[in-house]
Write a structure and sequence with these properties.
256 residues; alpha/beta; Rossmann fold; 7-stranded parallel sheet; 8 helices; 7 strands; binds NADP nicotinamide-adenine-dinucleotide phosphate
Length: 256
């Protein structure tokens, strides 16, 4: 059986537990032969992620809170010092205050708006800056987005605006890093029950509507998202950059 990511090293940020999209992606990357480096946000998550890293066969686990410039600087230094050459980077990170995913969007506080932008959008720019110097042979950076960036989805609010900025950032990064043969894309996943998704009020209702109306009439399987990430990280995706690839049972085409 061919291994699409043989001899490639991938950094995966945003793995919190077995339900995380990053977990499915890391698992698929290992299946395809990648050497894995994982990160966790802080001490609270250290043991859990180290346990999952063992299970996944990751070679290294590093601490990185993407809101801390010092952490990103440290990440860059460690990767350089250990002579790592990265081929793929998965940014699977987002955060917004729970109350901003439940009340009307126009009631979003300045602080809540900026927090969602910082963690869910700006962090991609900061991560790209930290990893590009060790992607010396080119590679693939990818992030996770959602249709709420393009359409009004009930209660997605401040996160929809952050995802719109994230998708625009993907295009600017793709344009600037392309000459270094670094591709930058977003995977726009359909709704999946994860810890982050549970923070959105009435998330189950969104899931039901999408499942009932998507062309494929089924919810998004995290493994479908993961296989698309494998494709983007591999030689097979070499012509694709600056794109938003939908993995959502086709829901995004519906005019409901
Ligand atoms: P998840 O398991 O909760 O993953 C979110 C991750 O972001 C967690 O590992 C979290 O770490 C991390 N994070 C938050 N703030 C951070 C920070 N300051 N520094 C470093 N890491 C930080 O949920 P998920 O659904 O898999 O989300 C992954 C990505 O997929 C997000 O961008 C999300 O918007 C996107 N997405 C999800 C869906 C869905 O329906 N689930 C659909 C489309 C797109 P902690 O747990 O330590 O806070």
């Amino acid at each position: 059986m061919s291994h699409l990511l043989k001899d490639k090293t991938a950094l995966v940020l945003g793995l919190a537990n077995r339900w995380s999209l990053a977990y499915a992606i890391a698992r698929a990357f290992r299946r395809e032969g990648a050497n894995l480096i994982l990160t966790y946000q802080g001490e609270r998550q250290k043991d859990t992620v180290e346990e999952l890293a063992k299970e996944l066969g990751a070679s290294r686990v590093l601490s990185c809170d993407v809101t801390q410039e010092a952490d990103l600087h440290h990440l860059n230094e460690i990767l350089r010092a250990e002579g790592d050459q990265l081929h793929a980077v998965v940014h699977s990170i987002a955060f917004a205050n729970k109350e901003d995913l439940a009340r009307p969007f126009y009631e979003t506080s300045r602080e809540g708006f900026l927090l969602a932008q910082e963690v869910s959008c700006y962090s991609l720019v900061a991560v790209a800056r930290a990893v590009a110097p060790v992607m010396t042979n080119g590679g693939s950076i990818m992030t996770l987005s959602y249709l709420g960036s393009q359409r009004v989805m009930t209660n997605y609010n401040v996160m929809g605006v952050a995802k719109a900025a994230l998708e625009a950032s993907v295009r600017y990064l793709a344009s600037e890093l392309g000459p270094n043969n670094i591709r930058v894309n977003a995977i726009s996943a359909g709704p999946v029950k994860t810890a982050s998704a549970r923070g959105i009020k009435d998330f189950s209702k969104i899931l039901d509507v999408v499942t009932a109306n998507a062309p494929l009439r089924r919810p998004t399987d995290p493994e479908e998202v993961a296989d698309t990430a494998v494709f983007l990280a591999s030689h097979l995706g070499r012509g694709i950059t600056g794109n938003v690839v939908y993995v959502d049972s086709g829901y995004q085409i519906m005019g409901l």
